[in-house]
Design brief:
Length: about 240
């Protein structure tokens, strides 16, 4: 049986500017989590012409949007806030374009952290550019770099009747490495889970397709938490 092919748009790696030009890369834990549930992940380079990108997209069974730096707020028609950082315009363009194609075609999509935000922006939503500054009474959501990736920071409560609640149950304990979050929910989406302070922790589309974004990093928890593994299993079950 053929393993479902999951595309993961890369990020731009400028970590060695004096030794080599920018590279396109992706963090290994996302790939390992997908492989562990029977998927065949493939990293998609950035800065392709639309015909080439579309040719790759049409071969995919599902789309995975990974974590990373902040989206350019121009993508959701806002000005740059002082704490918005790590912009990658090539990645923004690729992810938003592919997310829109996937939503239109009902291709299964799973977004993690930045990926959830990219999914919301692709659908026409907006973001809180810094939770600490802009959300009154917010709990701490950014534990990078002090804590390891598997550090459990807080609970989330799922919304009854959502796809996410069917996968995770009423609640789950999650890690937290983000300083931005969903503000205005994209049309056609609904909230899948909230943090204790009311910050949106997950979104999903209402079209009946698997189009889910979670604000935490389940790939780091999946090896030890059956609920987080179940999220990847549910995604791959839809693309298989």
């Amino acid at each position: 049986m053929r393993s479902p092919l999951i595309g993961i748009p890369a990020y731009t790696d400028n970590s060695l500017p004096e030794k080599m030009p920018a590279r396109f890369a992706m963090s290994r834990p996302y790939i390992s989590a997908l492989i562990s549930v029977g998927a065949a992940p493939i990293i998609i380079p950035l800065d392709l012409d639309e015909a080439s990108l579309r040719s790759i997209y049409e071969r995919l069974d599902g789309l995975f949007l990974a974590g990373g730096g902040d989206l350019n707020p121009a993508c959701y028609r806002e000005q740059l806030y002082s704490k918005t950082e790590g912009l990658d315009l090539l990645r923004d363009d690729t992810e938003i374009k592919m997310a829109n194609w996937a939503l239109a075609d009902h291709m299964p999509v799973l977004g993690v952290c930045r990926g959830a935000q990219a999914l919301n922006v692709a659908g026409g939503g907006s973001l809180v550019q810094d939770v600490t500054d802009l959300v009154p009474q917010a709990i701490r959501h950014q534990y990078h770099p002090e804590k390891p990736r598997e550090y459990v920071a807080h609970e989330i409560e799922t919304v009854q009747g959502t796809r996410l609640s069917a996968i995770l149950g009423n609640e789950a304990r999650v890690n937290s490495f983000h300083h931005q979050a969903v503000k205005d929910l994209a049309p056609g989406f609904r909230v899948g889970a909230y943090a204790p302070d009311g910050v949106i922790e997950a979104i999903e589309h209402n079209n009946g397709n698997f189009a889910v974004g979670v604000q935490w990093h389940p790939e780091s928890l999946a090896p030890t938490d059956p609920k987080m593994r179940a999220l990847f299993e549910a995604f791959v079950a839809q693309v298989g």
